[in-house]
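Final report, section 2: Outcomes. Of the targets proposed, Dienelactone hydrolase domain-containing protein is the one most frequently requested by collaborating groups, and we therefore present its record in full.
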Amino acid sequence: MSGPQCCSNPPSLNPTGGGGHVDKVGGIDSYFTGSPHSKLAVLMLSDVFGYEAPNLRKLADKVGAAGYYVVVPDLLDGEPFNPQNSDRPFPAWIKDCALKSKGVSAIAAVGFCWGAKVVIELAKSKLIQTAVLLHPSFISLDDIKGVDTPIAILGAEIDQVSPPELVKQFEQVLAAKSGVR
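The predicted structure is given below as tokens.
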């Protein structure tokens, strides 16, 4: 989160909105959209408002309409982010390798705000083939040093948690690595 303004105007959550459907995978509710027959998948991770946020689902639907199989897992287990509770169900979900079992050959992960930290962990563990971080929160230089997969980082110029100076340092670390762009 860039500051208190991120949480001062939360969206009205609408679990029935969107063009996809909700199903359980690895015991976690997830929003699916796009073609389940696509060999290319995009894993979209929410910000602190979760997978029911209407704008996130609209974006997932647009990516799905472009030919990708899109999965937006409920990493928050139906609850808004609580910094006092770091026990999230994601490790169980990824352990089941749900997307790989459907024949998907490549996975890109997109993380918004808090979700960017989860994407970094996936990138460090080589469970994805490419990563995109948007308004990344809680990302450190050590996190970036551990990334060995192609990555794009889109920061905000008024971000208080990941200010442009820090994003520039991320860029310098990544530029020194071969194969990571």
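Residues 120 and 143 are 7 Å apart (CA to CA).
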